[in-house]
Prior knowledge:
The structure holds two protein chains of two kinds. Chain A is of the alpha+beta class. Chain A is built from 20 helices and 19 strands. In chain A, a hairpin with a 7-residue loop joins strand 2 (60-67) and strand 3 (75-78). The longest helix of chain A has 28 residues, at 2-29. Chain A is elongated and about 110 Å long. The termini of chain A are far apart. Chain B has a domain at 447-481. In chain B, helix 2 packs parallel to helix 4 (99-120) and helix 13 (336-369) runs parallel beside helix 15 (415-436). Chain B has 16 helices and four strands. Chain B is globular, with a radius of gyration of 23 Å.
Amino acid sequence: MNQAIRNAWIAVASMFALILGSISYVQVIGADELANNPWNNRAILQTFCQDRGAILVAGKPIAQSVESGSDSCEFQRTYPTDPALYAGITGYYSNVFGSTGLENTMNQTLTGQADQLLMDRLRQLFLGQQPKGASVELTIDPEIQALAHSLIPDGQRGSIVVTNPKTGAILAMVSKPSYDPNTVATHDRAAAQEAMGELQKLPGINLNQGVSGPTGGLLAPGSVFKIVDTAAALASGKYTADSTLPNPAEMTLPGSTAKLPNYAGGNCYTRSEASFSFALEQSCNTPFASIALDLGQDAIAKQAAAFGFGEDAGDQLHLDYSPGVFPENLDEAQLAQSAIGQFDVKASPLQIALMTSAIANGGVQMKPTLVRTVRAPDLRVVSEPKPEVLRTSTSPEIARQITEWMSNVVSSGIGTGAAVRGVKVAGKTGTAELGASGLNNSWFTGFAPADDPQVQVTVVMEGVNVQTGAKLTSPSASKIFEAVLKK
Amino acid sequence: MSGVDTVQRSRRNAELALLLLALAVAVGANAMTGLHNGTSFEGDFWLQTILLTVASLAVHIVLRFRSKYADPLILPLVVTLNGLGLAMIHRLDTAQTEYGNAQVRWTLLGMALAAAVIWFLRDHRFLRRYTYISLIVSAVLLVMPLVPGLTAGEINGAQVWIRLGPATFQPGEVAKITLAVFFAGYLSTNRDLILLAGRRLGPLQLPRFRDLGPMLAAWLVSIGVLVFQRDLGSSILFFGLFMVMIYVATSRVSWVLIGLTLVAVGGFVAGRIFPHVASRLDSWLNAFSDEVFGRDPGGSYQIVQGLFGMANGGLLGTGLGEGRPDLVPFPHSDMIIAAFGEELGLVGLFAIVLCYGLLITRGFRAALGARDSFGKLLACGLSAAMGLQCFVVIGGVTRLIPLTGLTTPFLAAGGSSLLANWIIVALLLVISNAARRPVDTTPWRPDEAPGHAPTSSTPTAKGRGQRKAIEETRTEAVRIK
């Protein structure tokens, strides 16, 4: 009997050996795989209730962690200052929906997990302090941000991007409809879910998911794309500043019976041939279509890429960015339409702002920058991004030439609404038709002062008629130019 | 009959030292759970500490009086496990739940029951008289949860609870003990018959059909538990208990093979017929498929969350009170192993498994040392059952085998399980006392058969005094030797 008892013990001992093996597998060997499983939300939850660093604009927090008063989750993320103004930048930080915007992309910094914050983390550990993240100060100017926000009427879908073309710093970036991220960040899961359900019913709302808003939403650029055609034409050597362009009232698209007419609102009809200056001033369509057909799609595509179409926006934006699109394999009819920013050409408002900034900055695009400084919990500056070149879009000569023509658009063309008394403003308007609805995406992009650019403004209003578009874009830009230059 | 050398020393002082160590671990763990938010010594901490210490020492003192040769490792190991369980359950309590205090009450009751068993059951052979009564009691206990009026209905998919006033009780936990008593009594009486009768088939000695009766009965009980109570874990446990005991009684591998065949057939058929078994299998094999993960009830959400927790713990764990075991459904009962894995890491969980291993090994050691086949079978059966239970629970949580609803002995929240396991520990202590006690070399007088007098309900004062005197002289004699 004793031998049988020993054998039974061996059986039980073998089972225990199996258990030790399976524990080792789960906790060590297979642990990484389990940790990386998409269903595993422990990593988020582990830091969710910590004291995250604040996101600051001009010293005021637009996102900060405050004590929640609950033991189970000590800190509540709040958006105390004009939440709707900054929602598109901060995003939200929710234990139901995860995080978006800077809350997501700067998470390592805000939680203090980033490599350059290692020493701070160790000090907190040794001193037994609560882990505390670094704070992030933005390049946003709160007054300009508020002004831009107010220039988009409630109920109107639109975006405004204001940058310093010489540094790439983003001074304001807004879109409507916006929302209050506090409603989604609440620890009350049911309330958060309900709020999110409401938000998702709003078309065009920028939840920083890369499908809408100034950096994520892709729109037909319309006539502002003519800047690309012009740069491509001058760079090709086939055209000079004095070239004469054909300017028929309408042209039959090659290989089809469809017609491409000139813009009806301007003075294009007065001439059958035009200079670059006149074609840009009045935003005539047929001269640019013929340039594109002449140069071929590769030349236009190459110039578009040089302005950033299809390329990323650098590593200092920290927001989800949808690169613009210039389509491939076009037939001639499609190329002609693409040349005036229609067909499948798409760009985000920030993409157009980058294009214009390149013209303003002597052909050089600076990396769009949203973060001015990162500060450790003891307010020591951890990092302070310097202005960096993103890419060279065109030559200084071509940039200077296009600036000259864009100045004429505002001084004597169809963009006079953007003029500022005593300041030489350069700009370009665009009206992209949305199918046959009669509604358009109405654009203005420009900079001022034209001879020493301090500020670039891009405005787009979506789904408006021509009159409303003209009222909401150029005059809004004028107000922003004035406000920035007055500082 | 023992054939095993035993050093005949009482070792009670060693037990006391180990017990203090065990209490230090338990109380230390309880304090650590509140360390991260400075609530270490708040609430009922001191009351719990004092109650646990006093009760453990009381059991120790009862052992000093009544079973002074009992194994000195068993009590400290059990107090360690029970104390760790209390700390974790206390840590998992939220503002709304009070599992911690309930578990303290059940622990005290369990220790009191254990002390009572040790005090009144001076010789385990007394139980042998109740072989068939145990069978009847087992049957009644197992049927109780199905009786209308008594049953607490279906809780978490299984119908294993009865309602006793305001509390619920799981009679199956106690049936584990009575079944072990029955099997031990039956097999120790009939083993010769079972051994010698029957036909040989090659190397296998096949049992006679009529001797297969008890095995078939055990199989039917297991299947019945599975079908009517929907409790896969208990079903495996009861059948495993019987398999081990019949193997130890007969040393015949043929029984084990027949048993395993029955399990395979039963398991296969059950997997085909019963949806609750099939869904257990499905959520084990396909735990990481979208469809199974999202299914509720019967999906793999619980086990996968448990695995995430243990992976989060890694080698050294997050530290007590620092992890998120609350993300796993039922962290204080079914999934308490995952909670320990997360907060104490692989190292801590290994330590817990080794505590179980050591405890069960001491049970087997008592079986080896016992001088009667009833005691051997009972100790072996109870130890093996506890080992099997650990395997089924921890194997289930780590996805080695399908997850079943068994409790983790001593750790998991649950009164019935705690009471039953404390009784098992008391029985093991009593048997180990018999095994380690100095061999009595003086001839027995017929009227002093150990089964009789010590537990007789009305022993004369004179008889008790006499016997004590005799025992003391015998002990003295051994010491002098």
